[in-house]
Design brief:
The structure holds 2 protein chains of 2 kinds. Chain A is of the alpha/beta class. Chain A is 38% helix and 23% strand. Chain A contains 10 helices and 10 strands. In chain A, the strands form 2 sheets. Chain A has a 6-stranded mixed sheet, with helices on both faces. A 4-stranded antiparallel sheet of chain A has the order 2-1-4-5, covered by helices on one side. The termini of chain A are far apart. Chain B is mainly alpha-helical. Chain B is built from 13 helices and 3 strands; from the N terminus they run βαβαβααααααααααα. Chain B has a 3-stranded parallel sheet, covered by helices on one side. The N and C termini of chain B lie far apart (95 Å). The chains are: A alpha/beta, B mainly alpha. At the A-B interface, α3, α4 and α6 of A face α1, α2 and α3 of B.
């Protein structure tokens, strides 16, 4: 995100410090560090198997890193005790790839679920807040539907609404546009941009949909499974047009491996 | 903070889902206390507001008040003002549509229709299984015998300990319960007849089938249901393979071959359990037990038990596979299929046992 020179950056909402990530002896990422600032839309990308979703699990505290730290507004998520950790996790709204809506609850009940559990609001107040969220995400008149009755795009939007219900201003989305048609995906991109504009939400989005990346991202952080490192962290258009790293250039310009291309042609 | 005409409500700090309850309540109270005064809601000191806070502002703004006593927002950040503007109070006045309530009679009717449909589907499935079994008999080379052996190991060998325990305890219990009554009539030796007939004709096969329903029927249903949810069944079909032959036939064959063997084990340990009780409690020696047993039971009893075991095995395996095939979508349906398979298997086994009892009487 552009900041005027010589001004102190605001406090990062999410910071990753010297993170080593992986499972057992299999290391996916070594010594990774980056910060996400308020109101930014940061995309985490990389080829299949580069550890994007695993990094997200580290960021939300579902899977501990092998080394290093994840800070939420300056507080360590890794070293936090169970109760502190739960409080930190409640600051994060998470949309899982499949939506992960509760199948036995209606759309409205799904969104109301965190409000029911963690606030003293009256039923009418919770219903109003949940319905307004649904409308913000362009999902009018779906309150009484069950998750099984929703299309893929609707499911993801309800999942975003549920992630935001508790007033989380840091949203982490795992592949929001995967499996959606181009129009639905483009509309979802607009929804994300409007959330940032209207509610000052910070978004960390795991995706490898190039069009979506160019549409929404202020910054793209690219992971590489072979060097097990962050190989790029900049504006997507800068990475596309000016990156000197062949892997980054290839990804952002959607180029196949040269040798394969020659063989096929 | 009241001026002569306007009343100003000043919002300060952070209004979030966790802090909104009291602010929301007291703001509504204030509005209700001054029904005739114009209210200005001053947001100049507002630091942060989340979705619940926005809902609160909207709720305050939509309150019905007489002309001249309206609620006006002041110093609202432009993004919030435009967001609030997008919501139409009329839309939120419409009650949330309730899901249709299903009455008792409708529920009973639907369940009855569902059960009938299930039975019809099961019959269709059984006829497919029958055809696959016939093909296996006429063309045994087409059967994947390594798969059959794998399933047989899981269904048979791994079930031996629990079948032995159940069979042994059955023999012990029958001998003990019947023995206590028979002793009063001086007919203790006939307990051997009871234990022999009961184990060989009924309980060996029945107990094995019940163990099988819990262990194997549920496992078959869950395995195939998971494969269906993961679209593996579609993948098998698109390879031009028949899911019945590929997945069901090995399971049916394994069950038909292995369950009678398990039933024989149950018979033997059941008789041993009976003999143990007779010898230790009722002074009937092992040799006496053996000679009385030979007089009491016939080869027919033994064969009947074995045939029943094979039929029970086929039934449990077929119902397990059928429940797996007809599973719904989503993770909950796998569990439901497994439970349904156990219940349906046990009921069907008992019903079939009843038929056998009538036929052989």
């Amino acid at each position: 995100m552009d900041r005027p020179p010589n001004t102190r950056p605001p406090q990062a909402v999410v910071s990753v410090r010297n993170l080593r990530m992986g499972y057992g002896t299999r290391v996916l990422l070594e010594d990774a560090s980056f910060d996400v600032y308020p109101g930014e839309i940061v995309v985490i990308l990389g080829g299949s198997g580069s550890g994007k979703s695993s990094l997200m699990k580290n960021l939300i505290g579902l899977h501990p890193p092998l080394a290093g730290d994840v800070l939420i507004r300056g507080v360590s998520l890794v070293r936090a005790r169970a109760e502190e950790k739960a409080a930190l996790q409640r600051q994060l709204g998470v949309m899982y790839q499949s939506g992960a809506l509760f199948g036995s609850l209606t759309v409205l009940e799904n969104i109301r679920f965190p409000l029911d559990r963690f606030t003293d609001l009256s039923r009418e107040q919770k219903n109003l807040a949940a319905r307004m969220l649904l409308q913000t995400l362009e999902m009018k008149q779906t309150e009484s539907l069950m998750p099984g009755e929703l299309s893929g795009g609707m499911l993801k939007r309800v999942a975003i609404a549920r992630a935001m219900a508790l007033g989380c201003d840091i949203l982490l989305l795992d592949e929001p546009s995967a499996g959606l048609d181009p129009v639905t995906a483009a509309n979802l991109d607009l929804t994300l941009l409007s959330l940032r504009k209207n509610l000052a939400v910070t978004l960390i989005v795991v995706t490898h949909e190039l069009e979506s990346i160019f549409a929404i991202a202020d910054r793209a952080i690219m992971l590489d499974p072979i060097s097990r490192a962050i190989i790029a962290d900049d504006k997507p258009t800068t990475l596309r047009d000016r990156s000197t790293d062949a892997r980054v250039h290839q990804f952002f310009n959607r180029q196949p491996d040269e040798q394969r291309a020659t063989e096929v042609r | 903070m009241a001026s002569s005409e306007n009343l100003t409500l000043r919002l300060e700090g952070r209004i979030t889902a966790h802090t909104a309850t009291s602010i929301w309540g007291s703001a509504l109270d204030t509005l209700a206390s001054y029904p005739d005064r114009a209210i200005v809601i001053d947001a100049s000191r507002l630091e942060y507001i989340d979705t619940v806070g926005v809902a609160m502002l909207f709720d305050l703004g939509r309150q019905r008040r007489p002309a001249g006593a309206s609620v006006v927002f002041q110093a609202l950040p432009p993004n919030l003002a435009s967001l609030l503007h997008r919501y139409d109070p009329a839309e939120f006045a419409i009650p949330i549509p309730a899901r249709r309530h299903v009455g008792v009679f409708e529920h009973v009717g639907r369940s009855a229709v569902a059960q009938l449909r299930l039975i019809r589907e099961l019959l269709g499935f059984l006829s497919l299984c029958g055809r696959a079994l016939m093909r296996a008999v006429t063309h045994p080379a087409t059967v994947a015998w390594t798969d059959v052996l794998d399933v047989a190991t899981e269904v048979g060998a791994h079930a031996v300990p629990v079948v032995l325990l159940m069979g042994f305890l059955m023999g012990v219990i029958i001998a003990f319960e019947v023995g206590l009554v028979a002793r009063q009539f001086g007919a203790i030796i006939f307990v051997v007849d009871g234990v022999g007939k009961a184990m060989l004709r009924e309980l060996g096969a029945l107990m094995t089938a019940i163990v099988l329903a819990g262990r194997t029927g549920a496992a078959f249903a869950a395995q195939i249901a998971t494969q269906r949810v993961n679209e593996e069944l579609n993948a098998i079909s698109t390879f031009g393979l028949d899911p019945i032959e590929f997945l069901v036939l090995p399971r049916l064959l394994a069950a038909i071959f292995v369950v009678p063997l398990l039933a024989v084990l149950a018979d033997v340990v059941g008789l041993f359990g009976g003999a143990l009780v007779m010898a230790s409690t009722f002074n009937v020696g092992y040799l006496q037990f053996y000679s009385q047993l030979l007089k009491a039971v016939t080869a027919q009893d033994f064969v009947l038990g074995i045939v029943k075991a094979a039929v029970f095995g086929l039934t449990v395996a077929a119902i397990g596979c059928h429940r797996g095939f007809r599973t719904g979508a989503g993770p909950a349906s796998v569990g439901l299929s497994a439970t349904g398979a156990v219940v349906a298997s046990i009921v069907m086994v008992v019903v079939i046992d009843g038929f056998f009892a009538v036929i052989t009487s």
